[in-house]
Design brief:
single chain, 14 strands, 54% helix
Length: 476
């Protein structure tokens, strides 16, 4: 039972995936498709009913008209002398009613002609005024067959009547023993009208579809701008406000979004001012402590106190820089990312570290250059310092930019990989800045990369070591 249930679940999942592929993804496309489906369903139902009523009415009028003509021709033919009947036939024949005069009762009509009781009853309903004259009815063709274009009556070829899927031959006996055979192209008028109407409805449906798609995109365009503004806000709180356009509901939502963005901007500004004040007060206190250490008589203790104060000042500066986010207001400019990474690797190599760059010789990228330099400096320096070497690879992948920083160090356990991005978290257990730093390097790097719309992930390197994978969106 479990196997059968799993198979059914997979089958339903496949059907669901196929249905999702067929169903449009955008709101505008979905609205246009729904409108078109409703339109075609309503139009199809209306056309079917209308065509049926029109066909019945047209057929009835056509039948009455043909019946009247048959009665008049039969009476006129009996009053016409035999030598002049050929002239009369030429005058009364038409593409919708062809008359053939036979000297006797037609015994063989030609291939394909057959008796039809239903057609006989229908014809007799309209030919009642002919009285007791003998009448025979035969039918050629079906509705599910191609239109009949070539036929014959009693061995005589008929002209190409109006194309119709059925033809009816009505044989009427004359009082002198001759027979008149009337060949009718059945239901020609309604068939042609239906094809004509279907063409114009399909043409109108195509125009309506184009208009529905255009109108749907126009109505949903503010939603797309709303999503873009939300993405910009996640990267830059000082992004331009969202235009308040569109329907009443969209204008109200855009106004609320702009107010939220303004509140966030004020919150960031207030935090920056507060940190600037704290930084000023703490620097003043540290300066006073620095001066007081000069009055310590023991030289060894004085040097230790000065070292502690220098470490406190450095930790304070890095902490306040991280909290203030000094690079947030840096404008975006285009820089050569390949040259930036190459110079960072060369600087580390000059100090005796193993660092190498691999990738294209030039790759222009729009970014905040000082912020991005800081982020990659932290990543590459960590790899070269704690991972024995730093191999930096730059590549473009599907419109995005990918930078890989790989080392050959001991790596990071999988359970700890997210924790290393937390501020002040250090894998190294000592509190010495020389061996473990302040614990802000990875946090600063991820914050900067995310402000550019990207992210950093950590992976194991084949053969040992760690890989820091930085993925940035493509150039705007």
């Amino acid at each position: 039972m479990t196997g059968e249930g799993t198979w059914r679940e997979r089958r339903h999942a496949r059907r669901g995936m196929r249905a999702r592929h067929l169903w449009p993804d955008g709101i505008a496309s979905r609205v246009a498709l729904i409108l078109m489906i409703c339109l075609f369903v309503v139009q199809a139902a209306s056309i079917l009913f209308y065509i049926r009523d029109r066909a019945e009415a047209a057929t009835e009028v056509f039948a009455n008209s043909v019946a009247d003509r048959i009665g008049a021709i039969v009476a006129l033919m009996e009053r016409t002398p035999p030598p002049r009947r050929a002239e009369l036939l030429r005058a009364v024949n038409s593409p919708t009613l062809w008359v053939t005069l036979l000297p006797g009762k037609p015994t063989v009509m030609g291939p394909g002609w057959r008796h039809s009781p239903r057609a006989w009853r229908r014809v007799m309903h309209h030919l009642g005024p002919l009285g007791d004259r003998p009448i025979e009815v035969r039918v050629l063709g079906n509705w599910d067959a191609p239109p009949v274009r070539e036929s014959e009556v009693a061995g005589q070829p008929l002209p190409d009547l109006l194309p119709s899927r059925r033809k009816i031959a009505i044989s009427v006996g004359q009082r002198d023993g001759s027979w008149l055979v009337f060949t009718v192209a059945a239901d020609t008028t309604s068939l042609r009208w239906g094809i004509h109407m279907a063409f114009w409805i399909a043409l109108a449906g195509g125009f309506i579809l184009l208009f529905a798609v255009w109108a749907g995109h126009r109505v949903t365009r503010p939603l797309a701008r709303f999503a873009e503004a939300a993405d910009r806000l996640g990267v830059d709180v000082r992004a331009p406000p969202l235009p308040e356009a569109g329907s009443r509901e969209l204008r109200k939502a855009a106004s609320a979004f702009n107010r939220m963005q303004e509140r966030l901007r004020r919150l960031v500004d207030d935090r920056t001012l507060m940190l600037a004040a704290i930084s000023h007060d703490l620097r003043t206190a540290l300066t006073r402590l620095k001066l007081r250490t000069e009055f310590i008589a023991d030289g060894e203790q004085r040097e230790k106190a000065n070292a502690d104060l220098d470490e406190m000042r450095a930790m304070l500066e890095s902490t306040l820089a991280f909290a203030r986010d000094d690079t947030a207001d840096e404008p975006r400019t285009r820089v050569d990312l390949a040259a930036l990474l190459g110079s960072l690797c060369d600087d580390l190599a000059d100090t005796g570290h193993a660092a190498a760059y691999q990738g294209p010789g030039r790759l222009t990228y729009a970014c905040r250059p000082m912020a991005l330099r800081r982020a990659f400096t932290n990543l590459i320096a960590n790899a070269a310092t704690y991972g024995e070497e730093a191999t930096v690879t730059l590549a473009e992948d599907g419109g995005a930019v990918e930078v890989i920083v790989a080392d050959r160090g001991p790596g990071i356990p999988e359970a700890m990989r997210e924790k290393v991005f937390a501020p002040f978290f250090r894998l190294e257990g000592s509190r010495s800045r020389e061996t473990g730093g302040t614990g802000l390097g990875m946090a600063v790097a991820r914050a900067i990369i995310r402000r550019h719309g990207g992210d950093i992930t950590l992976e194991d390197r084949p053969g040992g070591g760690l890989v820091a994978r930085v993925r940035l969106p493509g150039n705007p």
